[in-house]
Amino acid sequence: MTNAYDIVDKAKGERFNLFSILGMESDEVSTHSRFLAELLNKNGSHGQKDMFLKLFIKHLKIANLNFNTENSNTIIEHHVGKVTDSEGGRIDILIKDLQGNVIMIENKIYAAEQPNQLLRYKNAFKKGYLIYLTLNGDNSSERNINVEYKTLSYKNDIVRWLEECKKEAVEMPILRETIQQYINLIKKLTGQNINIKMSEDILKLLLRDSDKLMAYSALIEVNNKLRKHIISEITAKIKNIIKNKYDYDVMTEEFIGDKGCLFYLQNRKFKDYGINIRFNFERSPFSSLIFGFANDDKEKPKDELLLTSAKKYFPNAKQSDWWSVYIPFENYNNWNYETLSKIYFGADNNFFSEVEDKVQKLISIFEHRTYLTK
Q1: Distance of alpha carbon 97 from the chain centroid
Q2: Contact by Cβ (8 Å): 25, 19
Q3: N or C: which end of the chain has fewer CB within 10 A?
Q4: Quick one: pLDDT at residue 358?
């Protein structure tokens, strides 16, 4: 069945995507925040004034918000002061009107969450409406009960809003098709690249009789265990590859729910320096896979020299409080069953080669960094 739908996708050209071709899939600021902010900007180049912003507020059911969209201003990376425990930082997207109403959007694609991030932004605009936007609508890892925020997902909320925007742009082909390209990108990042019609056909099959429905129910119950079992076998193979080539301790950790450490490696030099090479799922379920140098202690000062060295191999490398360097693992960011099947059954031989290559580059980066400070 999958092959048939693949043929349809190719015939319709749905796999052609400019964002993917230009390597812009995972850049939160330059791609996602800028694209969303441009649509939400009443003075945006789309020429639709505040139409898209009105749809955003209406479609996402932002309650009790008397926002004047006609007199609004949209800002990317709005600076709210030096970072402390309770203040400062940069808000990904800030929208405000002349009456002082504020909408803040914290946009998380792959980036690691920083300590007290939402608290700091809420303190900057105490009456502001705070949105935490992730691929799948995850909650923030913050445990501060004084921070109120609304969770939104790219997978459902943003796609639905963009579909409404596309309807308004029906007579503007360039704008309409650009929005569609971005919708296609979101569906790829959120594991929706299997044709919707295929899902509908499977649904009809399940509802034909009780046995099929009960069999499906039984499969759902073992779903998470099955995925964890497959991932553990993949991790075991990774361990063997690395141990046969490098003198490092390779370890895994128990997943907290369905995210967390895939594996990490460390030796005496790394331990003395206070970092480890880590591959980590930042989001549920087993998605937003990133890799790089994780700090053993979040209080460790940021190493700009290490980041500079990493950017020579990985131009999209970034830092956070827990990561000296992190990079999105773009080709394998979402470990749905399509991805797992390719890796596990050997249909995709590139995965283990990619892991080995990335580990080798990270080791070289660290060795270069330590050489510079001798």
Answers
A1: 29
A2: yes
A3: C
A4: 94
Question: Coil, strand or helix: which one is 177?
Answer: helix
Domain map (residue ranges) of the chain: 2-189, 225-372
Work out the burial of residue 150: count CB atoms within 10 Å of its CB; fewer than 13 is exposed, 13-18 middle, 19 or more buried. Answer: middle
End-to-end C-alpha distance for the chain, whole angstroms: 59
Handedness of CA 286, 290, 291, 295 (dihedral sign): negative
Three-state SS letters, 157-173? HHHHHHHHHHHHCCCCH
Does residue 242 sit in helix, strand or coil? helix
Question: Contact, 46 vs 38, CB < 8 A?
Answer: yes
Give the Å distances, CA to CA, from 355 to 131, 218, 242, 329. 34, 34, 9, 9
- Eight-class DSSP state of 111: P
Q: Which residues pair with 290 in a beta bridge?
A: 280, 328
Angle at 58 between CA 53 and CA 62, to 5 degrees: 100
In 3-state terms, what secondary structure has residue 266? strand
Cα–Cα distances in angstroms (integers) from residue 263 to residues 33, 63, 231, 356, in the given order: 30, 42, 11, 13
371 vs 258 pLDDT, higher one: 258
The predicted model scores a pTM of: 0.62
Q: Which distant-in-sequence residues (6+ apart) come within 8 Å of 21 by Cβ?
A: none
The Cα–Cα gap between 151 and 157 comes to 10
Cis peptide before 328 (omega within 30 of 0): no
> Is pLDDT of 206 > 60?
yes
What's the pLDDT tens digit per position in 100-152?
A: 899 999 998 877 677 788 999 999 998 899 999 998 888 887 766 578 899 99
